[in-house]
């Protein structure tokens, strides 16, 4: 059998899962190989004819000359061997609403309420410069718009891990607030970007996953074999709804990373989901729920560990932290998206616990799990009375949970919330770091050698339990060796 290009119906190199789940995409990719469909050229009209989105590259020097919220000029992409690109994705989207009663078990049904809503949005792409170094895994992040602008939270935490492993990354402007900010800040570069409402956001995310499978040139030409969804905070709430209501229908992702969720979920249209919502137990792809200490009081009602859902609560960490802020502040200074580019600050030092190590390990486990490997290791939850009152040791650090070496051998008390600051609401999420006194450090670590030995032992335990990757262990131990402790 041949397709409209005269090629075999299924192109060479397409895996069985890809062929069975996305037959239209296999045909489009076959056309790409024949030169009929390409990104950013007139042949892309064939994708529109098939009812799928078209994807066109934004010229690197267009408008202000750089992607908003992008890493270029902030992260040393040359050192990482990565290239940043940006694309417009245009199509028509379907909207949904609740069908029947949505209960806390997450087994939610939907009904179509509209079709044909035209939209244009942007895709922020980070990919290996050498296509041969692409490992076949793509992370598609639902960009967070809690502060009125796209923020690639998962990219900011795990870009070093993505680069080490050869992942490709796509940040999706999925919501109207983010799209409107793009056109406000750089109307020339983002001319035509328009998301008329957030009701289409769920279908826009699905279309982004389909687009990268159908147009591998977006990520340098390598075949995507594992496509993972991710989202943080308000995006995590939308991913809970996506996992329960859209993924069972669309089946476009191989795994989902829900990072920093509350106990509930986002509305899909006019209806309201239950106050507490678990991930449905019959989902056919794995879901990793990754929580900071800040998130626990609001999410404990939805704690779960099942055959398809794994939850980690990382003690001593905050919803957002100094590491992420150290990346975002220069991005904001360049883009002037919040407070005219002023750096965000709080009343006291922001949480500096190494959450990124747990996130890197979580992505590694989710990738393997999605490819048919074993589920990630289980972790005890953070100790909390009634799920909300976190129990602490005499230094003020949380008990229980995933314990990274920086918390097992602490040099400070790490809190989940801060106060004050110049961005309304931000400091509630950024946490605190209260350094120990010199006397307390001397009690814990009489000598520098004692500190390094304890830290190294803790790092080895974390690696053994699967909470720390060997590469991050090496970085962490080197940092401990260089630290002036005591």
TrEMBL record:
<dbReference type="Pfam" id="PF20091">
    <property type="entry name" value="Abhydrolase_10"/>
</dbReference>
<dbReference type="InterPro" id="IPR045394">
    <property type="entry name" value="Abhydrolase_dom"/>
</dbReference>
<feature type="domain" description="Alpha/beta hydrolase">
    <location>
        <begin position="60"/>
        <end position="478"/>
    </location>
</feature>
<protein>
    <recommendedName>
        <fullName>Alpha/beta hydrolase domain-containing protein</fullName>
    </recommendedName>
</protein>
């Amino acid at each position: 059998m041949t397709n409209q290009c005269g090629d075999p119906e299924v192109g060479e190199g397409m895996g069985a899962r890809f062929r069975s789940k996305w037959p239209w995409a296999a045909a489009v990719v076959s056309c790409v190989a024949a030169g009929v469909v390409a990104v950013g050229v007139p042949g892309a009209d064939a994708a529109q004819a098939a009812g799928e989105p078209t994807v066109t590259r934004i010229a690197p020097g267009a408008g202000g000359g750089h992607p908003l919220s992008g890493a270029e000029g902030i992260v040393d992409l040359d050192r990482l061997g990565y290239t940043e690109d940006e694309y417009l994705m245009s199509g028509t989207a379907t909207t949904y609403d609740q069908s029947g009663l949505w209960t806390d078990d997450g087994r939610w049904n939907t009904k179509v309420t509209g079709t044909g809503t035209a939209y244009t949005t942007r895709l922020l792409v980070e990919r290996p410069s050498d296509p041969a170094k692409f490992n076949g895994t793509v992370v598609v992040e639902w960009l967070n718009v809690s502060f009125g602008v796209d923020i690639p939270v998962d990219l900011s935490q795990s870009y070093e891990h993505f680069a080490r492993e050869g992942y490709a990354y796509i940040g999706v402007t999925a919501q109207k607030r983010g799209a409107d900010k793009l056109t406000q800040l750089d109307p020339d570069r983002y001319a035509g970007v328009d998301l008329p409402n957030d009701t289409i956001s769920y279908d826009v995310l699905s279309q982004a996953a389909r687009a990268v499978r159908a147009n591998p040139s977006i990520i340098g030409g390598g075949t995507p074999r594992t496509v993972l969804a991710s989202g943080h905070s308000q995006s995590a709430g939308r991913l809970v709804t996506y996992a329960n209501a859209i993924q069972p229908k669309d089946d476009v992702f191989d795994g989902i990373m829900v990072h920093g969720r509350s106990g509930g979920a986002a509305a899909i249209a006019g209806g309201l989901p239950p106050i507490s919502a678990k991930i449905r137990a019959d989902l056919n792809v794995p879901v990793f729920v990754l929580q900071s200490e800040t998130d626990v009081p609001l999410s404990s009602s939805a704690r779960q560990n099942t055959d398809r859902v794994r939850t980690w609560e990382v003690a001593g960490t905050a919803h957002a932290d100094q590491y992420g802020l150290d990346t975002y502040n220069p991005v904001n200074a360049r883009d002037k998206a919040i407070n005219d580019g002023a750096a965000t600050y709080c009343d006291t030092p922001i949480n500096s616990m190494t959450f990124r190590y747990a996130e890197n390990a979580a992505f590694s486990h989710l990738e393997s799990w999605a490819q048919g490997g074993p589920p990630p290791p289980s972790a005890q939850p953070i100790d909390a009375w009634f799920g909300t009152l976190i129990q602490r040791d005499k230094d003020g650090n949380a008990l229980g949970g995933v314990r990274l070496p920086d918390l097992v051998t602490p040099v400070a008390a790490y809190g989940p919330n801060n106060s004050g600051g110049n961005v309304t609401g931000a400091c509630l999420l950024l946490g605190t770091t209260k350094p120990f006194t010199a006397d307390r450090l001397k009690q814990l670590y009489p000598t520098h050698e004692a500190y390094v030995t304890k830290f190294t032992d803790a790092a080895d335990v974390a690696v053994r339990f699967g909470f720390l990757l060997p590469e991050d262990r090496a970085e962490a131990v080197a940092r401990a060796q260089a630290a002036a402790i005591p």
